[in-house]
Amino acid sequence: MARKSDFKLRLRIADEAAKIIVEEDVADYQLAKQKACRRLGLAASTSLPRNTEIEQAVIERQRLFAPVQHTKVLENLRQLALSVMRFLETFNPHLVGSVLKGTANHYSVIQLHLFNDDQKSVAIFLLDKQVSYQSIERRQSKESPNGVPGFSFDWQGVPVEVLVFPLDGLRTAPRSPIDGKAIRRASIQQVSDL
């Protein structure tokens, strides 16, 4: 009986976390779980749902509560991603993240992986094209202390984050924080086919 009640509790937390992610511009699953527990009046020691359960709850929430709006937002974000990918074509851009997976919402950031052995050439390219950017660095796994360098900028009013991997980085994708598997990447042609 305890297992069934644990399962139901994890589903409640997952559903509340999904609501927070979809409606409140929270992209961090761990933070969403913590907020969900506080809202539900649960202890921090409560058995939390896995990230895959949260992601499934996000998909279900979008499907149930705003399927038409979600489809329009996703199509728009994918079109914008395609246009920025074509702009950055020199660097072999690949789409990753929620826009590729289909879990994006109107708060989502377009995330791209670029491939070049010299990140400065990406910065120079952006400067030459008069794109105002900020330098960023993102850790791709808990095991790796070093972050991947990149840039953030707006593209037609939508935030974009590009991480610059070495040329041979295309062979090995970082692990997803959601399921621990290699992050799915899509080329210009693959995004166009979506």
Question: Can you offer a commentary on this structure?
Answer:
- The chain has 194 residues and is of the alpha+beta class.
- It folds into two domains: 2-65; 68-193, Beta Polymerase, domain 2 (2-Layer Sandwich), CATH 3.30.460.10.
- It is 46% helix and 16% strand.
- It has helices at residues 2-24, 29-39, 51-65, 67-87, 98-101, 119-128, 188-193, and strands spanning 94-96, 110-115, 134-139, 147-155, 158-165.
- Helix 1 packs across helix 2 and helix 1 packs across helix 3.
- The longest helix is centred in the N-terminal third of the chain and has 23 residues, at 2-24.
- The radius of gyration is 18 Å and the shape is globular.
Biggest β-sheet: count, sense, barrel?
5 strands, mixed
In DSSP terms (H or I, runs of 4 or more residues), the helix count works out at: 7
Strand order of the largest sheet: 1-2-5-4-3
The portion of residues assigned to helices is 40-55%
Describe this structure in a few short sentences.
The chain has 194 residues and is an alpha+beta fold. It folds into two domains: 2-65; 68-193, Beta Polymerase, domain 2, CATH 3.30.460.10.
Which features would summarize this protein structure in a list?
194 residues; Beta Polymerase, domain 2; single chain; 46% helix; alpha+beta; 2 domains
Secondary structure: elements and pairs:
Elements: H1 2-24, H2 29-39, H3 51-65, H4 67-87, E1 94-96, H5 98-101, E2 110-115, H6 119-128, E3 134-139, E4 147-155, E5 158-165, H7 188-193
Parallel strand pairs: 2-5
Antiparallel strand pairs: 1-2, 3-4, 4-5
